[in-house]
Automatic annotation (TrEMBL):
<dbReference type="GO" id="GO:0005886">
    <property type="term" value="C:plasma membrane"/>
</dbReference>
<feature type="transmembrane region" description="Helical">
    <location>
        <begin position="273"/>
        <end position="293"/>
    </location>
</feature>
<feature type="transmembrane region" description="Helical">
    <location>
        <begin position="335"/>
        <end position="360"/>
    </location>
</feature>
<protein>
    <submittedName>
        <fullName>ABC-type dipeptide/oligopeptide/nickel transport systems, permease components</fullName>
    </submittedName>
</protein>
<feature type="transmembrane region" description="Helical">
    <location>
        <begin position="248"/>
        <end position="267"/>
    </location>
</feature>
<dbReference type="InterPro" id="IPR035906">
    <property type="entry name" value="MetI-like_sf"/>
</dbReference>
<dbReference type="InterPro" id="IPR000515">
    <property type="entry name" value="MetI-like"/>
</dbReference>
<feature type="transmembrane region" description="Helical">
    <location>
        <begin position="214"/>
        <end position="236"/>
    </location>
</feature>
<feature type="transmembrane region" description="Helical">
    <location>
        <begin position="380"/>
        <end position="406"/>
    </location>
</feature>
<keyword id="KW-0472">Membrane</keyword>
<comment type="similarity">
    <text>Belongs to the binding-protein-dependent transport system permease family.</text>
</comment>
<dbReference type="GO" id="GO:0055085">
    <property type="term" value="P:transmembrane transport"/>
</dbReference>
<keyword id="KW-0812">Transmembrane</keyword>
<dbReference type="Pfam" id="PF00528">
    <property type="entry name" value="BPD_transp_1"/>
</dbReference>
<keyword id="KW-1133">Transmembrane helix</keyword>
<feature type="domain" description="ABC transmembrane type-1">
    <location>
        <begin position="210"/>
        <end position="407"/>
    </location>
</feature>
<keyword id="KW-0813">Transport</keyword>
């Protein structure tokens, strides 16, 4: 009983997270998931902010607070400079903006001066960084620094000999503009789960994709078991038509699952504007259920036929018991424990299949398959972006363990002589 309680407790946590996620994840983030310009304000390939708890000293991302009208303060105490500082005007506004900076060591420089029409980068714009280098008296070739995303090292570091040393302390930014301007520090960490190569928040796909992931997993498992159980019972109780159903189930059980699914996806889906193969959730669930139900159907048919050959069943038939009554009073008692066990096992299989198809860049909705596809297309492992792999990997492992705990308890509590089938 403890295993089942532990398994259901874990599943309950996942369900609660799925129910909470629509209220935590902004709807606009989900709608604009594939629009790269929407995520320009975020750092690219940035680890979670909590890495600083383990010896790192990386600047986080966020808007600077306005201490006085037109004056913003940034307390810099990190070992690396921010990737960028963005000048963000109001929507549909353009005009002249000048941003000056007073550094902790008393230097006053102009970070930007000119007309802007939208979000403007300072740390990645060659002209801006070269002008900043001139003001700071830096004579080195800084082109490589800009390309590597370290253009603002000139502002936050000083060169001592051959080394760049951070100048930590209070940086005061003064903005001269005719409208309200926002200054955003694009740091080197972001949020609880980091970002991908486009600056997209991993927490959005991880939490926002959880509801659909659970729906796909359990809807596919339920459809598979219901279809397998119904066809198995029908195949055992019927004549020629039952034999036909049994033949279809045999074909389903013999097909190699992953290759067959990969073959069906292009047929059922289409290539999206973003280069991924998209398939509707309903089509995915139906196709996968057809590939999974065969073994369940065959085993249910075997259980049913064995039960029907027992003496007490034959005696019931002799005294006029109908097939429906026998099915309800005797056969289902043997079939249901097996069906419940297969429901749980199939859910675990579906999770594995979602993971595998994700690695083939197959998109069947906003779920964890999309996140796993990102791991492949953005070469997350090769680039050392462990934060794209670890959360979803751990989450899938934990839910699989929960399902197996429940399955183990079901098998222990219900004597199932068909376990080896």
């Amino acid at each position: 009983m403890r295993k089942m309680k532990a398994g259901f407790a874990i599943l309950l946590i996942y369900v609660l997270l799925a129910l909470i996620s629509p209220h935590v994840i902004p709807v606009e983030d989900v709608k604009n998931w594939n629009y790269k310009t929407y995520w320009l304000k975020n750092p690219r390939m940035a680890p979670p902010e909590w890495v600083n708890l383990f010896g790192k000293s990386l600047p986080p991302t966020g808007n600077l607070r306005e201490e006085k009208p037109g004056e913003y303060v940034y307390n810099f105490h990190y070992d690396q400079p921010p990737q960028d500082i963005l000048i963000i005007p109001p929507a549909n506004w353009s005009g002249f903006v000048e941003v000056t900076v007073l550094t902790p060591d008393g230097k006053k420089v102009t970070l930007y001066s000119g007309t802007i029409t939208g979000i403007t980068s300072t740390g990645k714009a060659f002209f801006t960084v070269f002008d900043l280098a001139r003001q700071m008296g830096v004579n080195d070739d800084i082109s490589d620094m800009i390309v590597k995303g370290e253009g603002l090292k000139i502002l936050f570091f000083r060169k001592e000999g051959d080394e760049w040393v951070p100048v930590k302390g209070k940086y005061t930014f003064r903005v001269n503009a005719s409208s309200k301007i926002t200054l955003r520090v694009v740091g080197r960490t972001y949020g609880p789960l980091g970002t991908d190569s486009d600056g997209r928040d991993i927490a959005v796909i991880f939490l926002g994709g959880l509801p659909q992931t659970l729906v796909i997993v359990f809807l596919t498992a339920l459809t598979t078991v219901l279809l397998g159980t119904a066809t198995g019972l029908f195949g055992a109780l019927s004549g020629k038509l039952g034999a036909l159903v049994e033949g279809f189930a045999k074909v389903s059980s013999m097909l190699p699952l992953v290759p067959a699914m990969i073959l069906l996806v292009p047929i059922l889906g289409s290539v999206s504007y973003y280069g991924t193969i998209e398939i509707s959730t309903g089509a995915f669930v139906f196709a996968l259920s057809l590939l999974l139900f065969g073994k369940v159907s065959q085993n249910v048919r075997t259980i049913t036929m064995t039960e029907l050959s027992k003496e007490h069943i034959l005696a019931s038939k002799a005294v006029g018991g109908s097939e429906l009554w026998i099915l309800r009073r005797h056969v289902l008692k043997a079939v249901l424990p097996y069906a419940v066990s297969q429901l749980i096992l199939t859910a675990a299989k579906v999770i594995a299949i979602i993971s595998i198809l994700g690695f083939f860049n197959v998109n069947f909705g906003f779920n964890w398959g999309e996140l796993l596809a990102m791991v492949v297309t953005q070469r997350a492992i090769y680039n050392g972006a462990w934060w794209m792999v670890l959360p979803v990997g751990v989450a899938i492992t934990v839910i699989a363990i929960a399902l197996l705990l429940i399955k183990s308890e079901v098998e222990e509590r219900f004597i199932n002589p068909w376990e080896s089938l």
